[in-house]
Amino acid sequence: MTLPSSWSGTRRGSAQNGRPPIAWAGVRHQIKDVARAEDDEEVKEREQVFAMGHCNQVVMLTCLHLAHEMALREVGQYCWITPNNKDPVGSTLKIMKAYEKKVVDLDRTHPVTCRLAPDPSKRVIQHHLQKARLAAGTNSYIAVVYLGHGIQEPPTEAGELWCYDRSFDESSADGTGPSEYIPILLFDMLTWAGASTCYVWDCQYAGRFINAAKSEAAEIDSQLQVAALQNPQVAELHPPVYSKRQIHFAACGANQILPRIPGLPDDLFTACLTCPTQISLYYHNLQTFPLTTKGREKDYIQRSPAYMQALWDNMSHDLRERLWSELQAIMHTIAWQALPSSEYQILFGQEGRAISSMAGGFILSQRVLATYRTQPESIPFIPPTNAHSLWIHWDLILDNLFAQLPKYFDATRIDTSWEANLKLVSFMDDQLGSILTSNQGPSSDTSAFANDAALSRLPIICQAAQTPQYRVQACKALEACIQNLDVAGLGHAINCGVLEVATQLLELDDPTLLSYLVSIWASLVRHSSCIKRLAGTAKVDPNGNRNGNGNEPSPPYRIVLFISHLEDNLQNRSEDNTTRIIQNAAVVATAVAALPDTLSADQLCHTLELAYLMLQDEHSLVQQWGALLTAEILGSTPKLAETCHEAIEDLREQLSELLASKIVETRTTAVNALSRWIPSVPVNHASDLKEALDIAMQVMDLAAGDAALLMRKELVHLFAQVLHAAGQWATLALWISIMDDAIKRLPMEATTLKAKELLVGLHLSEESHRALVGLKKVLAALEYLHRDPDHQISSLAATQLQPLGETLRGTVPLSHWDQIMVTTLPGNGTSGEWRPDLVTQVIGAGETLVKDWDDKIIVKTEKRHNSQLFVRSKLSLQAYINKEAKAESFSEHLRGQPQNMQEKTWILRHRILEDSLVVAEQQRGLPWKWEMKEISSPEPWSNLTCHSFHSAMMSCNMSQDLLVRLKWISLWDWASSRKIGHIHLDLKPGEYIKYGRFVNELHATTAVLAEINNGDIYIFAGPPNEQNQMKLISSFKALDFSRAPVKIYDPEDRGLHSTWFRQSGLLVVGGPTKELNVWDCPAEQRLRVFQSGEDAATATIITEPKQGNLFTAAFWNGKVRLFDLRQRRNTSVLDWQGDHPGKYKVMSNSVIRRLGIVLGESRHFTCASGIGIIPLHKTYIIADVLLSVNGMINIHDLRNLARPVTSTLAHPSGIAHAHFQPHSGLMSTISNLYPSRNIDTLNLAPLSVANTAPHANWTLHRSTLSDLSVVSQDNIVFGHQSEDVLQGGFKPYTVIHPLRPFLSLGYGRTCYMRGSGVGKGDDTDSGSYSFLRAQAKFIQ
To answer: Who's near 1064: CB < 8 A, 6+ residues apart?
Structure first.
């Protein structure tokens, strides 16, 4: 049965998708406030790598001496050319030309110059290396290939290499050859070539160069460092970076010789580096057991060398490119998984470049040469990869290819027609499909595991992006892989070459890729290393010329491209292009902020017009990025106001309207953008502050009326910007504020007259007076934020006020000035009192300040506008996009399949809420003496709160003893009677947690509100099933106790009293002030401020549980007032005396412990008043304190409030605590502690323990309309308590579970739970018989 007044039936129209709005569950609470900072050293090294030009110089040192070698042995192929015995000189020249072509083809994006040095002498080697370095420049890499197959002597252990005494040219000129070997020190080679050099050592015992290179490079660096100490210019010209920048590829180990394999060239290692695809085909042909021919080896015939050469010659360029792309993808992925990302960036990060191609070939050489027991070595060290599992994919590709090869080729002509029916297996296609399938749908997982999964296959994507047929798929995959990476993961992706690929894709100017590139660049610009790439100028045409007029600077076409795309999307606005608009704006704003001089004034004005369109959009994220784009443009180019004044004024008006937004980020970004209208340098005249102060006045109320940390932090920056712009006027305003406080708290006529005299002497104009008034308000707002519960905001406000105070201090002793500031601005928890000597010091500071006022020189120091919000928004952009995508996806699913959504958490929990109403009806007439649990806690409790759906509850400690009082909330599991964690707060002395409540109980993430006795509220959030993982996510001052204070009856009751309405997310708070604040928690802003009309503190508040439009507050003087949120009036609509004595002779004007309204019944109010009785026949003395307690429970009818319709004296000794369950109408009350059983007037069962044991009387009443009936009552004995409990002022408490039919009764360290039996029913019911019986200890 479902009652018409069920909770699910009261869902309000404002809730999204029929669900209540969720508070403190936004993206801003789920991401870190400060993202992981980029490591300075990593950024510096990465920038140095980017600053290096591509390798455009290669020196080929081929020591072959074919005439001599061919006389000694049968010489094989070099660069796929077989030398002619009869023409060694011609063969050498032919081989060198072939090497040159292979080397030039290594770089597919830039031209490479190959310097050929066949059979070189030492002088020739030095000449070529120095010339190559001179041509390349200091920072660009050069490559040196040393092919020493014609040298019979191995390199020495010290790393000496050998060359000839006569060069090839000298020998050819006179017809004689070299006669001896000449050693060259590796130290000399490194010095001639420079630091940024890649060496290829293809000779016997090549590993000796690896061992020597490490020590020689370290020695060079050491010498350079010593020289730099004597002459700093040496460090600029020759930095000590040899050890960091050297790259070496050696063909074998230090004690290994090179194998010569029939069917493969003699220069196998060099061939692997320069033509890896051809070597892969030849190597595969030599393998004995191909993967796909297992079981039919007889059908597999190894091809002859002639056939393999014919195969290569008859391959089309397209087929070679496809195989090369597949092989590069596999080799780079293997290297990516084997190397640290920083080393991978140096070797492989520049796709298609010479060094990257050779590094990929080195990976292949490890596999090929390892087959013949030879292990190539390298610097940086690349671990052996010959057994990597990805080689299986390459073998499958080649097996598939070889199975489709023709039986023979025509040797007389080149024919590629055999490729027509060729169907290749594609590793890239398979992997791209897997990536796209696994990344379907929005995801916000930024864990290390998710990062690793996204990063692991980036080399495949990078290679596929350079392959036309896979380019679109690669862009989709790249977008999916990098969008959720954190800054560290993005740094690794950049090391992988993502930035290079993204830049190359942008150069293509392909409309089909543009939408993906926008998303890719929106992710990349989160990393500072990528931003400079957006400053690219005009594109290069096929002839190598840049577009545009050569006499004028060419426009930054990359940024202009994004601006144009942003304009197109705004002009063709639809729901589908929202994400692209936001991403475009993020890229443009980042570029403008980092590269302010890149765009012209006209381009910036046009971009501001687009930002204005974004501000007018209905989507909150579009509005936010419109504001951020505006802020970055105006902040980077302050002189722009002169160029497009009208557009800027329109922007300001639109931003002002966004300040009223319910979305925290929207109004925060509006404040951030409005701060750009505030001057960044101090002004000369007060009249120049008008615009700045107007903006400050617009946002002034947000300081106390906004609960969002994000907003309050931005307000501190804005107010600080205003004070900086005010310059000496801000200092004068601070002095006036200090004097006002001194005169108010220590009134002295002489002080007042002196202050007025100083101000009159300035001859200030009316405009200056208005400016000073505004500045005083700004200072007051900063002082309020100085008292903020968030330590970061409080410290930030103090940091902004401190320079002003130092300027004003002048000659005042520092110790005195510190006392003055603490007295005036007690934001750090301390306060002081004014003394006449302190006032005299302030007067003296004022005299110094106003002296020569008009002649003071204003120092025009610039204060940069705050960009922290922009950086934070940029880093968290994808998280917001994912959140939006999830919401839309869920909404569509909900609309399309309403019958299949009952398994959703929020629907199931609504069903439990409805079931609780059924249970409430079943409880009628059943006993409440079923003892379920007994909990003994290590610390005393003052009250507790139960979670509606889980077995979690939390307790607070409000001991009068400061040593006993705890500054944390204990979390317990009532089902198992064990502690599951605690929530700790670092509070100031005298502050403690008064109460804690669960909110967002219908949401996947539970939030806990910790209410502090000073008016602050701290919010914790975490998984509902893991309460010990609660983390602090926010805090705000819910009620300012310094405003409109009232009389305090009980000093320990200084604190908040609140009520939470889950359906609207409204929180109403009251306390020791005349104000009641209504907070819209999903919007994190103050909605209303009501005046209580009572000179007494608020004692309890409740919200009408059905619609939530009414709330009722009771006060310490017994008064009750009803407020209506639908009306504009800020006072109560009804009031009555809640503690009316009725027919009993008890005192009135006593505190109301609890109010109650039955769900669905808004006319009758139940009041439990806690103070008040002195019976006529006796007076009770407890612990030498006269108790004047009331103990009444009254029901009032709103139609006749003069007297209660029902009254009962529940506890003659007074009510210590009470609790009400709205859907059942149950009011549980417990009396103050009894010293003995003599006070028992209810004739209950006698107590079985000593009279000294703390005990109290408990009753449970049910209110139904005007009827009040007793459900149960009992004497509760809490057993003996320790001295800290007895002396700590603890009181008994009782709490009913929000939904289930059981309650708790506790005092000190003891807590009992009692339940009401329910007839047999479905075990899934929240109040089922089986459920309760499983929890029970025994039945009385």
So the answer is: 12, 14, 20, 21, 1080, 1108
Rounded to whole angstroms, the Cα distance separating 145 from 381 reads 19
pLDDT tens for 696-747 read: 999 999 999 999 999 999 999 999 999 999 988 888 898 888 888 888 888 8
Distance CA 1247, CA 1244 (A): 9
Tokens read off for 106: 């290594």
Q: Residue 535: name the closest of 514, 551, 553 by CA.
A: 553
Tokens describing residue 1074:
């005349």
Find out whether 780 and 730 touch, Cβ atoms under 8 Å: no
Alpha helix stretches (DSSP H) within 1111-1155: none
With CA atoms as reference, report the closest residue to 975 among 946, 1013, 1009: 946
Q: How far is CA 695 from each of CA 626, 644, 699, rounded to the nearest angstrom?
A: 19, 20, 7
CB 1112 within 8 A of CB 1145: no
Q: How far is CA 904 from the centre of its chain?
A: 27
DSSP annotation of 1112: E
pLDDT score of 819: 81
Contact 1235, 1250 (CB under 8 A): no
Phi-psi region of 984 (alpha: psi -120 to 50; beta: other; left: phi over 0): beta
N residues, the chain: 1340
Cβ pair 116, 103 in contact under 8 A: no
Location of structure tokens 């329109």: 650
Contact assessment for residue 84 and residue 90, using Cβ atoms and an 8 Å cutoff: yes
Amino acid at 777: K
Best CA proximity match to 460, nearest among 304, 568, 327: 327
In terms of Cβ atoms closer than 10 Å to its own Cβ (0-12, 13-18, 19+), residue 410 is: exposed
With the C-alpha atoms ordered 707, 711, 712, 718, is the resulting torsion angle positive or negative?
negative
**CB-based contacts of 549, cutoff 8 Å, min separation 6:** none
What gap in Å lies between CA 879 and CA 873, rounded to an integer?
A: 10
Contact 279/271 with Cβ under 8 angstroms?
yes
Angle subtended at Cα 646 by Cα 645 and Cα 650, rounded to the nearest 5 degrees:
115
pLDDT at residue number 964? 47
In whole angstroms, what is the distance from residue 1253 CA to residue 934 CA? 17
Burial of 231 from C-beta contacts in 10 A (0-12 / 13-18 / 19+): exposed
Contact present, 916 and 1286 (Cβ < 8 Å): no
Q: Is the pLDDT of residue 1146 over 80?
A: no
What is the three-class DSSP state of 789?
coil
DSSP 195: S
Containing 277, the helix (H) or strand (E) segment is helix 276-286
Average pLDDT of the residues in 1028-1034:
83
3 state SS of 953:
strand
Cα 1259 from chain centroid? 51
CA distance 822 to 838: 12
Dist CA 1017 CA 1029 (whole Å): 19
- The set of residues, in sequence order, having a beta carbon less than 8 Å from that of 860 and lying 6+ positions away, is 681, 682
